[in-house]
Amino acid sequence: MSDTTDLRMPSVDPASWTCPAPLYDQSRVVMGHGGGGALSAELVRDVFAPAFGGETLAQLGDAAALSLGGLRLAFSTDSFVVRPLFFPGGSIGDLAVNGTVNDLAMSGARASYLSCGFILEEGVELDTVARVADALGAAARAAGVEVATGDTKVVEAGHGDGIFINTAGIGLIPAGVDLRPQRVVPGDVVIVSGPIGVHGVAIMSVREGLEFGVEIESDCAALGPLVDAMLAVTPDLHVLRDPTRGGLGAALNELATASGTGVVITEREVPIPPAVANACAVLGLDPMYVANEGKLVAFVPRRHADAVLEAMRAHPLGAEARIIGEAVADHPGMVVARTGLGGTRVVDLPIGEQLPRIC
Amino acid sequence: MSDTTDLRMPSVDPASWTCPAPLYDQSRVVMGHGGGGALSAELVRDVFAPAFGGETLAQLGDAAALSLGGLRLAFSTDSFVVRPLFFPGGSIGDLAVNGTVNDLAMSGARASYLSCGFILEEGVELDTVARVADALGAAARAAGVEVATGDTKVVEAGHGDGIFINTAGIGLIPAGVDLRPQRVVPGDVVIVSGPIGVHGVAIMSVREGLEFGVEIESDCAALGPLVDAMLAVTPDLHVLRDPTRGGLGAALNELATASGTGVVITEREVPIPPAVANACAVLGLDPMYVANEGKLVAFVPRRHADAVLEAMRAHPLGAEARIIGEAVADHPGMVVARTGLGGTRVVDLPIGEQLPRIC
After folding, report:
1. What is the mean pLDDT of residues B111-140?
2. C-beta atoms of A160 and B159 within 8 A
3. What CA dihedral angle connects B300, B305, B311 and B316, to 10 degrees?
């Protein structure tokens, strides 16, 4: 289909992306390699995947689905380097818990245990470390997960940035639940659990000292209970993804690519709070690519969509859930938005992250 | 016993340690907080343990022993900040695998899956990242563990130090195996699997450009097969520990404290290679506190000691295993060395780490 080909230009498919006139030294790591977009995908595809091999990593889910001793386990890790350490609505401690338990939740698993590794910079105040640890502990109790093992390293002043945290989590995947991008089929309904772009704008506003009339608080939250409510309707959801780095735009692209289906969303159905829209207009950001930390996007079989939506709306974390689009057989691997003017535009995979170090 | 009291002065028991004339700002993190000694223990006891709570963390094993879905799992994490990234005998990639699989091995578990989180500094060469990833992948294959899930973050130049890696690992604890410090009883025989101090001296010599006549290579290795050989003799080993940060001295102190028994070692039985002894003399280090990355110390019931030692010596990783001492009812919680001159000296818990960033 030549239409499709045209729509894909300029493509940022990581398999074909090249920069005709490099603006940076392509032999070195740039911020975008950590942004969850095309550069991150390239790093995984060209460096990590060949080096590590293995079937599980190749699934590229938010969490790995493992078989161990006859059990189906979800296993996931994230490092957290957010600046500042405390922000409206949360802290690096909250992110360190919720980021990892949400990755597990996207496989249907409730997190049972977390590991926690701190990399501290010499000179950071012990009181700050304690405040972060308290926030992490409180978030873990709220999410019903136990911090079971930990590690602390210290690097010299000027070789770190206050506090970095890594968490890894494990949990059981319930019987009958099989959430994978590969299960998406044309006709699936795309549901987002609530307003997008809040976390990234909250971080940016406090970092840059910007005010937008109202304080925007991060939506950082543990999504396990919402996922449980959805799975209670049917274990036959197809895929869940939490649109963190790279935002909803990156998440939809990853799922389209991995499933080999197209995705169409209706732009005006995507819930964007006015404060986020205003902030993005001022900052020159596209809310579709701004990170969330307490939202999920679901691809649900059409016959279950209304019941799942209803169950989501009955839960505080999904009160503003919306159907925003569907999976289609056309333009496989591509995400297209119907605009308010009746046209369409391609929602590409971002190259990097508009807002570095938001998690 | 007043003798014992005298021996303990000056004490660095983390429960009582205070610095009468602080040489540094005690409200801030110092390098020693990451050193695996008294300052690290203080940080865990006063900050992390109260914040996180939980039964499992309080066990303070190298790995947490968990119950999940009816299985007994070992779960452990370590971050790696070693400088330089490549050193004689290994790299940060080898350490990132062996450090975590060895922590699991100390609970008797063979590592099944690893997570891997990279924190990259903007500007580091992609070729360096690839070399580290290749080393990590090769070490994982050698250890028989699969890298199942990963994450990459990037921080701005000057806010990191090239490459930091966190790994977490999970594995099954075999039936009948219960390795815990609390199982140590007076009469247990203390066995070390080979010469100590090699890793720390290898790092220091390359970092400082020192030469000691012979190149000292890190002993970095995955100990799972050696542990399997020991458990094949009897599952009734009491405790295993890999003496990494803080060296053999810190490991013995941790086990003495956690078990509430005393430990006596015979100094001349502790295997210290001449090159390590020479380097330590030049650098003013005590080899008892220098880190190892491919050694273990075992407390074994006396009736099994000879057979376990024989099995260890039959394995390449334990060819130079030695009995170095025993657990005793006297001086509970304290480690004492019999010196070559027929006297005794206390082997205290080090306050910090003599060699920062050796893993």
Report:
1. 97
2. yes
3. 70
